[in-house]
Amino acid sequence: MSALDAAGFVLALLGWVLIGVCLGVDQWRVSTLDGSVITTSTIYENLWKSCASDSTGVYNCRDFLSLFGLSDYIRASQALMIISILLGFFAGITSLFGLKCTLLGNTEPTVKSKVATAGGILFIIAALCAMVPVSWYAFNVTVQFYDLTYLGTKYELGPGLYIGWAGASLELIGGICLCCSCRTAKDVRGSYTYTYRTARSPQPGEVTKKWNSEPDNASNYGKNAYV
C-alpha cells in the first residue's frame, strides 16, 4: 500500500500546483474572433484583472477596482479558489506525515492510515473547491456566448480553465488514492505456530520404554533392598 500512498500524494501535489498556476493565469476567458474580419485587439480576463493586447504585441492590464462591482459568481469563485489553495497546502503537510514510506510522526500502521486518510479527504475537498468555480466560470462564459440578447463582449474559454480542470482532477484522484489506504491495520506482535500430535497407542509386539523415577515393579525393588 505504500506505493499507492506515494502515487496518490504525488498526483494530489501536482494537482495543487496546477491549481496555483491556474489562479495566476490571465486568460480565463478570451474575447472571441467569431464574426470578426479584422481584429486589432484581444481582451482576456481572469478572476482578478482584465487585460488587452493589440496586434503589435503591446498589452495592458488593469486590476478590478471594486470587489462589489463584480458579478456574484466571480466573487464566489475568488473565495473558493483561495480556500482550495489553503486546503491543498494543509492536505499536503498532513499527507506527508501519513505516508508509510516516511518516518515522520507516529510510525504505527493504524495511525499512519488515519493520517493519510485525513490528508486525502482534505485533498478531495480542495479539488471540489477548485472544480466548482472553474466550471461555474466556464458555464457563464458559454451562456453569454450563445445568448443572442447579450450585447456586451463575448468570450471563449481560455487556457486557464483547462489548467484548472486538469489540476482539480489530479488532486481529486490523488485524494481518493490516499483514502484507499484507510484499511484496518493489525499490530504484528509475533505469531507462533504450534503443532499438536495426539498420543499414539503402542502396537502389539512393540517395545516401549518407560521413563519414570519410580521403580517398575515391587519385586525388583525388594531384591535391591535385601542385597
UniProtKB/TrEMBL annotation:
Sequence ranges of Polar residues compositional bias: 214-227
Species whose genome carries this gene: Chiloscyllium punctatum
MF GO annotations: structural molecule activity
Family indicated by similarity: Belongs to the claudin family.
UniProt keyword Magnesium, yes or no: no
Region: Disordered, residue numbers: 201-227
Keywords: Cell junction, Cell membrane, Membrane, Signal, Tight junction, Transmembrane, Transmembrane helix
Protein name as catalogued: Claudin
Gene3D superfamilies: 1.20.140.150
Bilayer topology term: Multi-pass membrane protein
Membrane-traversing stretches: 79-103, 115-139, 159-180
InterPro entries cross-referenced by the UniProt entry: Claudin, Claudin_CS, PMP22/EMP/MP20/Claudin
Record's signal peptide: 1-24
Domain of life of the source: Eukaryota
Function according to Swiss-Prot or TrEMBL: Claudins function as major constituents of the tight junction complexes that regulate the permeability of epithelia.
One Pfam match: PMP22_Claudin
Lineage per the UniProt record: Eukaryota, Metazoa, Chordata, Craniata, Vertebrata
GO CC annotation, single: bicellular tight junction
Primary subcellular site in the record, as a coarse category: other
Annotated localization: Cell junction, Tight junction; Cell membrane
